[in-house]
Amino acid sequence: MRFGLNTFLVSSGFTDADLPLLQTFKSYGADVIELAIVEPAAVSVPLLIEALAVSGLKQPVVCGAFCPGRDLRGTEAEQLACVQYISELIKLAPQLGATVVCGPMYSETGRAGRHSPEEREAQLAQIASHLKPLCQQAEAAGVILAIEPLNRFETDCINTLGQAVELIDRVGSPALKIHIDTFHMNIEEDDSAAAILKYGQHIGHVHASASHRGLLGQDQVDWDGVLSALQTIGYDGDIVIESFSEDNEVIARAAAIWRPLYDSPQQLSVEGLEFLKNSWKQLCSKHCQPA
170 with 120: CB under 8 angstroms? Predict the structure, then answer.
């Protein structure tokens, strides 16, 4: 098990200027770093590889950002841009030692509206048609594509784990998994732990996010239930804390961060990682199999 941090905590998109974050996140207690790469061209691969090695945070996770203009169910230009972006992330991941590319890659984040059943079926068919060749590329590269269900205010497309599995079934690739996020699950699932148990075989990545995007354990997420369910299904991937700073104006607006949620990124990171590691260890005595 590795517990880590997403760079969106302090950066609106990882670039070479953010390379010092690797050492900073390591000092906070992170075992892994999730690189939120908005523009792949802004990252110098050799420099990043060296920084990963020096920090000891090898095998990062690559997190995609699906901003306006990247939409697998959008205009022809938006579809093409999104396919190209995902393809670039798939190519980048093995160079960095990453095996997971995650995010809500099916649609532009923030796009939410009403659609008829016929329109929705057409959109899902279109998304699946794009994901099939991308998954073939991912399979060849040894990379998992983990799609993230978002809450109803951030997308009308994939809100629940059940809906994600329906899309996975359409695509039919072992490279396509679910990226779960406790923040979104707290809004959309009837029971987060039950959903994890039901769809556990499809889970490829986990975001640990408080129900209010603040300090983990001081919120309404059923952490014992969620972590116990992950242990029950034998999940051994990464668990990454995702939150956003009020000071990061670009991300704060997108994530509706209108008030201070914690004293500092360091506080959220250090206390959050300690909370996750201690909780996992305590629960493991009940669910983990001896080595």
Answer: no
Q: Which of 108, 154, 242, 271 is catalytic?
A: 242
- What's the one-letter identity of residue 135? C
**Is 119 part of the annotated catalytic residue set?**
no
State the DSSP string of 77-108.
Answer: HHHHHHHHHHHHHHHHHHHHT--EEEE-TTS-
C-alpha span between 25 and 111 (Å, rounded): 32
Q: Which helix (H) or strand (E) holds 176?
A: strand 176-181
**Structural domains in the chain, sorted by start:** 2-287 (3.20.20.150)
CA atoms of 163 and 161, how far apart (whole Å):
5
Active-site residue, from 34, 108, 148, 271: 148
Distance CA 150, CA 158 (A): 6
Among the listed residues 13, 26, 18, the one whose alpha carbon sits nearest the alpha carbon of residue 54? 26
Q: Which residues make beta-bridge pairs with 4?
A: 32, 240
- What 8-state DSSP symbol labels residue 160? S
Please provide the distance, in angstroms rounded to a whole number, between the alpha carbons at the two ends of the chain.
Answer: 14
C-alpha of 167 from chain center = 17
Return the DSSP state at 110: T
DSSP string, 202-220: GEEEEEE--TTSS-TTSSS
242 noted as active-site residue: yes
Q: Can you tell me which residue has the tokens 């975001």?
A: 207
81-85's contacts with Cβ under 8 Å and 24+ in sequence apart are 82/130, 83/130, 83/134, 85/40
pLDDT tens-digit profile of 124-175? Answer: 999 999 999 999 999 999 999 999 999 999 999 999 999 999 999 999 999 9
Give, in degrees to the nearest 5, the angle at Cα 202 between 285 and 36. 90
pTM recorded for the entire structure:
0.94
